[in-house]
Specification:
Keywords: Membrane, Transmembrane, Transmembrane helix
Number of helices: 4
Transmembrane segments: 22-41
Oligomer: single chain
Largest sheet: none
Radius of gyration: 16 Å
Helix content: over 70%
Structural class: mainly alpha
Distance between the termini: 23 Å
Length: 76
Amino acid sequence: MALGTGNEGKLTKVVEDQTSKIPSIVFLGAAVASMGISLTLKCLCKDKNALFVGQWAAPFLLLGIYNKIVKTEGHD
């Protein structure tokens, strides 16, 4: 199901309004926490779980960048 441009604009505005309420430090904290948990799992010889959790850091940081852009630039 494709969204029309009118629906996409409304949905985007709602998402950006909600996203802009989250402090940027939350995303940084989540990224650092995922790295710490990954290190802990690696030390416990749970390599697959460590890799899985460690890969969460990059998406958290990207969400933080998105959050910062929405806060500074706003939406259309």
